[in-house]
Amino acid sequence: TQLLEQSPQFLSIQEGENLTVYCNSSSVFSSLQWYRQEPGEGPVLLVTVVTGGEVKKLKRLTFQFGDARKDSSLHITAAQPGDTGLYLCAGEPSGTYKYIFGTGTRLKVLA
Amino acid sequence: EPEVTQTPSHQVTQMGQEVILRCVPISNHLYFYWYRQILGQKVEFLVSFYNNEISEKSEIFDDQFSVERPDGSNFTLKIRSTKLEDSAMYFCASSRDSRDTQYFGPGTRLTVL
Hints:
Largest interface: A-B, 23 and 26 residues
Distance between the termini of chain A: 40 Å
Distance between the termini of chain B: 37 Å
Largest sheet of chain A: 6 strands, mixed
Number of strands of chain B: 11
Radius of gyration of chain A: 13 Å
Strand content of chain A: over 45%
Number of strands of chain A: 11
Order of helices and strands of chain B: EEEEEEEEEEE
Number of helices of chain B: 0
Oligomer: heterodimer
């Protein structure tokens, strides 16, 4: 069974702090996506990473794909209350046509 | 910006009834997917569809489920005889090709009473 473990599950921090969310698996992925999901809505794509070791930046968000394409991290610099939400990683196992979703990290940034 | 749309946003049905959830994928996308998310749980893959055939399906996608692309724009998920445990958010997604990113719709909340 292919699993994506996210950590931490919950994170509550003060505005201005930095944080890192991790997404780990024993499986190799062709690509890995990070989504953000608001309550009652669908996942909204933040970034896709496809190459081992790849780093992508989206304003204050930095995404990294592990060298072996089994894990990824999302780092947020100087978090703001608008960053509050559920962050999901989703990996596409090699040779499949599906995404395996992580368990999610619920982030709360306090003003 | 093109987006995936889904209707209805909320469907309430009685146990044993058939439901059809509808999706309009992004127009130039060729691969289509259904996922579901039971309240408080993670998003789970149901099925992928390409060239009018199922490419892959999960264990959840049993004989009660079927998918169809009845015309050039719609992609539907049918549940023949709903069960209480089918209550969930159902998300449609589409991608340009099999290696491209999947874009998700806003979901249909299915409540089975």
